[in-house]
Amino acid sequence: MTETTHDEWFARLAARAQAGPSELSAVLALASAGGDLVDFSGGFPDPTLYDTQLLGETAAKAIASQPQVALQYAPNYGLASLREVLREEVHRTQGVRPEQDELIVTSGGVDALTLVSKAMLDHRDAVLVEAPSYLGAFSVFRSHDGVCFSMRNDEEGLVPASIEEAQAAAVEAGHTPKVVYVIPDFQNPSGLWLPLERRREIVEIARRLGLLVIEDVAYRDLAFEGSYIDSIYALGPDVTVQIGTFSKTFTPGTRMGWASGPATVIDAMAQAKTNTDQCAGALGQTILESYITEGHYAASLPVLRGAYSVRRDGLMDALAQGLGDRASWTHPDGGFFTWLDIPGVDAKALAAAAVEEGTAFVPGGPFYADGRATSNIRLSFSRTSVDRMAEGIARLARAIERVEG
Ligand SMILES: Cc1ncc(COP(=O)(O)O)c(C=O)c1O
Question: Are residues 160 and 251 in the same domain?
């Protein structure tokens, strides 16, 4: 008997798993090859900013003082005490208090997206997405048989009128529009902050069209000036599921996040969680709860904002000096990213040339659900030290010359 081959297994995979590695994983694999790379690619927090001694003590205390909680399964909604803390945090920072059955603890942001997809999407339902938007969300929607329809973004972010255009396009193509996915704060990938008036319009349109807004606030706590515009959830809690993650402001290693929204949807998400990981890890939940209630989370935010804003400044300077008029880019007031447009350049070819020159970033194509060709690229400044940025951008400039060449 011959052994079963890769090709035979591949042919037996579910259709949704047969796409193979994406364009993005090819770039990230090249970037992770290491060497003297100046890496602007991933949306990763900088682990050197963690207070590891404090985290170690907090973890040890959680295990020693309440092992029957920290080392046990948790309820699928999350630990009651942490949910109470998170409801209060949402209230304190957004002015709206989710009821007890309106908030679930999740295993990070992607889990929250997974659960809301399981709760809302039937086969081939339409998901209206920003153009550009977070490519990981497209992947979650598609793996739940959703079909993404692009809305329009301009230099201020999502254009609310384009919700109706995308909705009409979806209906015309025979799909049922169910949800609108928006990242209003320091968006991934654009870094932009959506104006208040547009947030109000989104709520009004969602109510009128019967759509659920999924508001992803992954970077909301990283407003460099520490100020906040009303969240879409605060403006329309009846039509919004807000999903948040502690991966950017606490640690991705604990995989902690939350979702708050209408009780009916949150309940369906909690039911769906029994079919995925059952509950977010209790150990991470107990550590996060102490970290917040002892004031460490609030105390850490100014430190993180300060560190990331210095890097933002460093990258803005490096871009101005290294690329000048050759490209344009956004000036983020928070988060991890800036979004470049390099007219006349194919972003995918540029990404490959850049890795050969010794720098890495994510090309813009995968951030568009309709797969359009693009001259945009995303640079993340979260993990790159300021003294390496000028060199990274000089390498990018050389790569641009090569692909133009
Ligand atoms: C907008 C956005 N949402 C969600 C996530 C995923 O969060 P998590 O790592 O907690 O799953 C990310 C991570 O890059 C993100 O940028």
Answer: yes
Residues 267-288: tens digit of each pLDDT: 999 999 999 999 999 999 999 9
Residues 311, 393 within the same domain: yes
Segments in 80-160 forming alpha helices (H): 80-94, 109-120, 135-143
* Percent of the chain clearing pLDDT 90 (strictly above): 91
Last residue of a domain, one of 296, 311, 328: 296
Q: Which two tokens stand for residue 239?
A: 């039509």
In terms of domains, do 97 and 216 share one? yes
Q: Is the pLDDT of residue 24 over 80?
A: no
Residues 77 and 140 in one domain: yes
Q: What is the pLDDT of residues 280-333, one digit of tens each?
A: 999 999 999 999 999 999 999 999 999 999 999 999 999 999 998 999 999 999
Choosing from 44, 107, 110, 277 the residue with most ligand 1 atoms within 8 A of its CB, the one to mutate for a pocket test is: 110
State what percent of residues in the chain have pLDDT above 70: 97
Enumerate residues lining ligand 1, CB below 6 A. 43, 108-110, 134, 136, 183, 188, 216, 218, 245, 247, 252, 257
What is the pLDDT, as a whole number, of residue 23? 62
Report how far Cα 373 is from the mean position of its chain's Cα atoms.
22
Tell me the residue range of the domain where 247 lies.
72-296
Identify whether 61 is part of a domain.
no
- Determine which residue's CA is closest to atom 13 belonging to ligand 1: 43
**Position 344 pLDDT exceeds 90:** yes
Closest residue by Cα to residue 376 from 393, 362, 364: 364
For helices 23-31 and 347-357, angle between their N-to-C axes, nearest 10 degrees: 10
Ligand 1: atom nearest CA of 219 is: 1
Cα(167) to ligand 1 centroid in Å equals: 25
Could you say which of 263, 280, 296 is where a domain stops?
A: 296
Report whether 226 contacts 189 (CB < 8 A). Answer: no
217 and 106 assigned to the same domain = yes
Q: Is the bond into 132 cis (omega within 30 degrees of 0)?
A: yes
- 129, 194, 245, best to mutate for ligand 1 pocket (most atoms within 8 Å of CB): 245
Same domain, 38 and 175: no
User: What is the pTM (predicted TM-score) of this model?
Assistant: 0.96
